[in-house]
Design a protein that fits this description.
The chain folds into 2 domains: about 110 residues, P-loop containing nucleotide triphosphate hydrolases (Rossmann fold); about 60 residues, no CATH class. Helix 2 crosses helix 5 and helix 3 runs antiparallel to helix 5. Helix content is about 55%, strand content about 10%. It contains 9 helices and 5 strands.
């Protein structure tokens, strides 16, 4: 089974591309969604997060307080690094279990915003990058999250890899720029990856 990473900046359209692959029967692991699930359900992780950030990391209902946590770490790279050092190993262990459950498939996708090139501290066979111009990404995010202003969105984009950095880790690129048709690109790549497997 091939292990394929899929990434791209916020607003690039990773999720819609992943949904297309799922329609084709490809299992997709959503790292950010699983991380959210684990912060709420992994008891050891909850304990470690509370020790790092305090009780406010969880709300009165016992749910992970993402907004509050994000505000604490947004301008504190050291604290963010410490938080990630708690969450990321749990997500990687969870991913390994998930891969085992899907090893009968020709290939699987692991979606994440943070990703290295294939073979660089990961066991990916290749990496797909979903790409879109920054202006279009901002427009999409504003439609999706109307409460966010352009400055907030630009601040998030500035903290992510640049398009050039994404391009440097890409073995395959899907252009989601409203000029290239998305479905033919996904179908062609699906066929190629299935043949490689």
């Amino acid at each position: 089974m091939l292990k394929i990473g899929i990434t791209g900046g916020i607003g690039s359209g990773k999720t819609i591309v992943c949904k297309m692959f799922e329609i084709l029967g490809v299992p997709v692991y959503y790292a950010d969604e699983r991380a959210k699930w684990l912060t709420n359900h992994d008891l050891q992780l909850r304990k470690e997060i509370k020790e790092l950030l305090g009780r406010q990391a969880y709300d009165e209902h016992g749910q992970y307080n993402r907004k509050w946590v994000a505000a604490q770490v947004f301008d504190n790279p050291e604290l963010l690094k410490m938080l990630n050092s708690l969450i990321h190993p749990r997500v990687f262990a969870d991913t390994d279990q998930w891969f085992l459950q899907h090893q009968h498939k020709p290939y699987t996708l692991r979606e994440a915003a943070l990703m290295n090139a294939a073979g660089d501290k990961n066991d990916f066979d290749s990496v797909i990058v979903v790409s879109a111009p920054v202006g279009l990404r901002i427009e999409r995010i504003r439609k999706r999250d109307p409460q966010r202003n352009e400055e907030e969105i630009k601040a998030i984009i500035d903290r992510q890899k640049t398009e050039e950095q994404f391009a440097s880790i890409a073995n395959h690129t899907i252009m989601n720029d409203d000029e290239h048709l998305l479905i033919p690109q996904v179908l062609a790549l699906h066929e190629k990856l299935t043949q490689q497997a």
